[in-house]
C-alpha cells in the first residue's frame, strides 16, 4: 500500500511538472513568436528595372531612399539589417527571396511606390501573405496613412513573388502613388521618405512587441 501510494503521487507530481512546462513553452513561444533579430529590407526594382516612371521620378530611386532610411532607424535600435540592394542595380525576384531566406529569425519588408493610369488615385497600401503577415501589414498600414496625410487604401492579401517566396513573415508596402502629381512631388522629398520609413519602423516594433 505504501509503495502504491508513493508511485501514484510521483506520477501525479511529474504529470503536473510536465503540464507546467508545456504551458511555459507555449506561452513563451507565443510571446517571442515575433521577436525577429534581422530585418530584410527589399528596395523594389533597380537598375534596368526602373519600376514606375512618372514626371521624371523613378520608383526604384524612391524605394531605395525609403529602404535606406528604414535601415538607419533599425541600425540605431541595434537590429541587424540585410538589404537586397544598396545601389541602383538589377536584382531578380528569385534572388531577392533567396537573400531573405538565407537569414535566420528574420522578417521581410519590400518597399515600393505605386502608379495608376487614373492620376487622381493616391494613398498607401500594404500587401501581405500569411496570417502573421496580415498582423504586421496592419501594424504598418495604420501608421503609414495618417502620418503621410494620405488616403488609407488598406491592407490586401496578394501573391507577389517576393512575399510568397519568403519563408519569413513578409509584407510589401506601397508608400504612395507617383502617378499623382501632388503625391509624386511630396514623395520626392526626404521628409516624406523619412516619415514613411519611421511608420514602417514603428509598425515593425509594435508587431515585434505583440
Ligand atoms: Zn514597384
Automatic annotation (TrEMBL):
Which Pfam families does the entry mention?
Amidase_3 (PF01520)
The protein's Enzyme Commission number? 3.5.1.28
By its UniProt entry, which Gene3D superfamilies does this protein fall under? Zn-dependent exopeptidases
Q: What is this protein called?
A: N-acetylmuramoyl-L-alanine amidase
Keyword set includes Hydrolase: yes
| Class of enzymatic activity (EC top level) | hydrolase
The entry lists its GO molecular-function terms as: N-acetylmuramoyl-L-alanine amidase activity
Amino acid at each position: 500500500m505504501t509503495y502504491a501510494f508513493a508511485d501514484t503521487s510521483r506520477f501525479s507530481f511529474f504529470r503536473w511538472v510536465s503540464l507546467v512546462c508545456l504551458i511555459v513553452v507555449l506561452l513563451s513561444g507565443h510571446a517571442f513568436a515575433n521577436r525577429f533579430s534581422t530585418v530584410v529590407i527589399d528596395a523594389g526594382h533597380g537598375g534596368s528595372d526602373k519600376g514606375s516612371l512618372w514626371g521624371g521620378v523613378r520608383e526604384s530611386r524612391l524605394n531605395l531612399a525609403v529602404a535606406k532610411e528604414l535601415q538607419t532607424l533599425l541600425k540605431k535600435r541595434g537590429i541587424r539589417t540585410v538589404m537586397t540592394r544598396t545601389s541602383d542595380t538589377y536584382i531578380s525576384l528569385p534572388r531577392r527571396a533567396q537573400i531573405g531566406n538565407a537569414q535566420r529569425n528574420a522578417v521581410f519588408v519590400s518597399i515600393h511606390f505605386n502608379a495608376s493610369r487614373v492620376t487622381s488615385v493616391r494613398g498607401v497600401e500594404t500587401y501581405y501573405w500569411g496570417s502573421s503577415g496580415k498582423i504586421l501589414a496592419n501594424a504598418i498600414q495604420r501608421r503609414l496613412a495618417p502620418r503621410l496625410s494620405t488616403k488609407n487604401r488598406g491592407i490586401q492579401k496578394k501573391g507577389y513573388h517576393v512575399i510568397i517566396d519568403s519563408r519569413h513573415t513578409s509584407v510589401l508596402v506601397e508608400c504612395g502613388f507617383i502617378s499623382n502629381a501632388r503625391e509624386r512631388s511630396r514623395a520626392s522629398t526626404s521628409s516624406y521618405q523619412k516619415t514613411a520609413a519611421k511608420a514602417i519602423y514603428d509598425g515593425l516594433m509594435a508587431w515585434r512587441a505583440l
